[in-house]
Amino acid sequence: MSSNQVIKASGLQKVYHLYDKPSDRLKQLLYGERRHLFRSFVALDTVNLSMQRGDVVGIVGKNGSGKSTFLQLVCGTLSPSSGSVKVDGRIAALLELGAGFNPEFSGRENIYLAGAIAGLAKQEIEQRIASIIDFSGVAAFIDQPVKTYSSGMYVRLAFSIAISVDPDVLIIDEALSVGDGDFAKRSFDRIMDLKDRGKTILFCSHSLYQIESLCNRVIWLDKGVVRADGPPEVVVPEYQSFLDAGSTSSALAAPESSAAEMAAEKSAASQEAWIERVSVASTSAMAANAQGELCLESGVEDLLVDVNFVYRGDRSRPPGVALAIHSESGLLVTSCGSWEDGLSLDIDSSGRAFVQIRFKAIPLLKGRYRLGVILFCDRGLFPYEEVDPVAFFNVVQSSAARGLVSLRREWKNCEHIAVSATTDSLEASDTRSRGTAYTVRVATPADALPLTQLFEQVFHKQVSPAVWLKKYQNSLGACRVAETAKSIEAFYGVVERFGYLSGERVRFGQACDVMVSTRARNSLGRAGVFYQMAREFIEQHVGIGKSFDYAFGFPNERAYKVAEKLGLYRKADHIVELRWSVAKPLLRRYGWRSIARADRELVSRFWSEMLSDIGELAVGERSFERLDERFGLGETDDYKVIVLYTRFTGKVIGVAVIKFYSSESRAELLDIIAPRRNVPKIVAAVGTYAASHGLTAIFCWATPAAAVWLKDAPVDEEIPTEVIVPTANLSDKSYRNDITGKWWLLGGDTDFR
Amino acid sequence: MIKVFLAAESRNLLKQLVVREIAQRYKGSALGLVWALIVPLSMLLVYTFVFRDVLGAKWPGAESGVDFALNLFSGLLVFNFFAEVLGRAPGLISEQPNLVKKVVFPLELLAWSSVLNSLFFAFVSLGVLFFGMVIFKGGLPLSSLSAVVALLIFTPFLVGLSWVIAALGVYVQDIKAIVSMIITPLMFLSPVFYPVTALPQAVQSVIVFNPVTLIIQAVRKGVLDGDWPLDTALLIHLCIGLLLFVAGFKLFRTLKRGFADVL
């Protein structure tokens, strides 16, 4: 097998032999080919396929077309009747979740058992067990026998185990939505993550929408034979027309799901986002027909669809609304999605949103149409809720035109050429007028009040203008605001941070509080405000001889990707999360006290020792003043800045900054000032500190270089985060030294969490 | 060679299965693993009472009640080992359709797991026997180690037997009934309640074909008589065991292909 080929099926055939009684099957095995005691059913007939690393392959086909058989053959749960299938690498199959569970065993024991079935070694399972339990969300029941679990918990645990295998090949059979909405969303994200990491994914789904958005290749199976194999834009329409041809009689019944199923679907709908109400109206008050369905006139009246929905998830990733209109014969006439039209939906403080879609002078021709509404995740892939049909409407027309839709057209009398058509869209000017003019300028002290208001609107947290000014006092000239004639709509903040790289003292610019109002968020492209602000900052302020030698920040992966795509940032480093579970020791070796003014000297001594251990790496300067500024010594109880010492000798080992997350029963180690040799003791001391406050774990965000120090103390778990540390994407000549992979940063170096 | 019969990557899984099943057996009960001692001991008490005190049976060559009990117990622990494995064998595969059809699972392991699980409890009983020797006889002969060897010699035989019965049990439901029917008579046809020497000469030459006979004799000889029992007969028993092991594996591999079609 070539190195890139992951799956190879050659002459793969599966024939099911149907026996009247089990003993006939035994006789058949013993007779061999001399006699046949069965009837045959060919489920899969001579399939030859190969799949490359990184392929995302969707399999479509009607029920009984051999999809599941094929997936099972690839997994190895079925053996082929002839031919072979070879798979190179670890497979995780989401076919029958929890099938290998022993109901008598506890959840934890089943993790070990199922992990072993999936081929994980004991240490590998131990490394993963905390994240498996965490992801499954059944932590409270993990030591109960799984026979006491609800079916949702059972499936969630099984999914968490299956996905934790870190497979090279992931096989999914209609299992994309597992458990309740929130879990389904997270599991979907996990699958997307595998896709992003270039793993091979093989899945079958009835949702052509999902297939089209996810796959780079689609295989259509029909009666056990590959009927088509190619890119989705070729295969899906072909398959769709095959389905449409076969469903002429389906009329307006909801496709593939009865009313009862729909109700079930709704009750299992997401806890995170759901559709509250949908109403359909037309511009004139034309009477409804006898069934109470809306009637409107083709090409004259507007169709208005109002959608109210509730969203309880992450506000920076609001959902999208999609509409689908089917004709009476079941043909999909058109669909549209808010995210595709570049609209970001506004959600009010109570999590409600209201959006209206207007189809101007409805171009549909006469007939009865079915309208469906789907609430999607921000990427338009994962459906939170689908209501189809949500309404029916009737279009009437005065003309004699036939068909489904009236296309926009232009007629012209020409003298010599028989027909001439213009291809220019009439609406070209319309689409351009969407953009609003924003001016980007340097921030001034007078912006403090509107910016704190914008901050509250975007992050839902309050901050006073005075604190704001103090934070940006030394770097206001590098900060940018974008405004319309009326108001400030976006901000790109930069604070000054001194530090060291390769032993030299340098001035860093740390991007903070980058925010864009929901109104200005439509455009994340080069015409958008974010690009303009960030580009100005980078071009005017970063590099040799400019205000800052280097720039950095802590955007999440999503924000980073936008900036990377625009050519503004490149990845310099990333953040990992280290975790330790802690318990009260029998004998306390370490003590602590709050930091005091008198400790200024101590901090500076520890810092200089620490700096010499850091050597060539890039690090932000630490000092008593910095601790005071960042963590507000004596002003707030949010952060505990403590001096740690050995109780036995009374010798101080270093300074640590800790934040409690009591609801999660853990604490974050935000910062350390100590030489490297003391770090294991500090981790132990902070562990004792956290345990004595009734917490069970501590964690720490760190770049890999800083994590090396922390890992001098045995770490229970290391998990990736989605935080990237970028650097301004300038030519190498703009910098004195390459900073890539050299950051020594901890959670306390970030701005806010 | 063992790699063929027990793949390296399956060993962790086997360990998980055995450890968890052992822990499972008395899980949730207040006494926990103590039951592993109580069960054989109580059986021992009942049998001793019935045969010696009610029926007045005597152990030839031994006068005291303690001797009767120790002899009976040695027989019983070997027979229980055998009976447990045999009783479980028909359902090993047929009661686990999920493992056959829904996940990729090395089904051969189930026989291993069943035998090793029972072997563990046989060793626990052997420990009880050793303890009894120390208490009632004031010591334990070095040859007692041969009892451990005898149980290990029995192991490949039992794994092979489990493979055969488990594989056939998938196709022929009657196997389960047949097995449960023969276990009880088999106890009386094994030298559990009597020594082989108490039988008529003609029967003695037949009873050695009962697979537990030689093992029971070896345990008694090694532990109770202080005599090393490792003779040719036992060697032949081992060879037959290994043959059954290999043949059972082959048969299991052949019949495995049809499991998914039937379950």
Give a structural overview.
- The complex is a heterodimer of chains A (753) and B (263).
- Chain A is globular and about 90 Å long.
- About 6% of the residues of chain A have low confidence.
- In chain A, helix 3 crosses helix 4 and helix 3 packs across helix 5.
- Helices cover 26% and strands 32% of the residues of chain A.
- In chain A, strands 18, 19, 20, 21, 22, 25 and 31 form a 7-stranded mixed beta sheet that branches.
- Chain A is an alpha+beta fold.
- Chain B is mainly alpha-helical and 263 residues long.
- Chain B is 74% helix and 0% strand.
- Chain B is built from 13 helices and no strands.
- In chain B, helix 4 packs antiparallel against helix 7, helix 4 packs antiparallel against helix 11 and helix 7 packs antiparallel against helix 8.
- The radius of gyration of chain B is 19 Å and the shape is globular.
- At the A-B interface, helix 1 and helix 3 of A face helix 2, helix 6, helix 8 and helix 13 of B.
Keywords:
heterodimer, A: 753 residues, alpha+beta, seven-stranded mixed beta sheet, 31 strands, globular, B: 263 residues, mainly alpha, 13 helices
Walk me through the topology.
The complex is a heterodimer of chains A (753) and B (263).
Chain A: E1 5-18, H1 22-31, E2 39-52, E3 56-60, H2 67-75, E4 82-87, E5 91-94, H3 107-117, H4 122-136, H5 151-164, E6 169-173, H6 181-196, E7 200-204, H7 208-214, E8 217-222, E9 225-230, H8 232-246, H9 259-267, E10 273-282, E11 294-297, E12 303-311, E13 320-327, E14 332-337, E15 352-359, E16 367-376, E17 383-396, H10 428-432, E18 439-442, H11 448-459, H12 465-472, E19 480-483, E20 488-501, E21 504-516, H13 529-541, E22 550-552, H14 557-565, E23 569-581, E24 590-594, H15 600-614, E25 618-620, H16 624-631, E26 639-646, E27 652-661, E28 666-673, H17 679-692, E29 697-702, H18 704-710, E30 717-728, E31 743-744
Parallel strand pairs in A: 3-7, 3-8, 5-6, 6-7, 11-17, 21-22, 25-31, 28-29
Antiparallel strand pairs in A: 1-2, 1-4, 8-9, 10-12, 12-15, 13-14, 13-16, 16-17, 18-19, 19-20, 20-21, 20-25, 23-29, 23-30, 24-26, 26-27, 27-28
Helix pairs in contact in A: 3-4, 3-5, 4-5, 5-6, 11-12
Chain B: H1 2-5, H2 11-25, H3 35-54, H4 65-88, H5 91-94, H6 97-101, H7 108-137, H8 145-171, H9 174-188, H10 201-207, H11 211-224, H12 232-256, H13 259-262
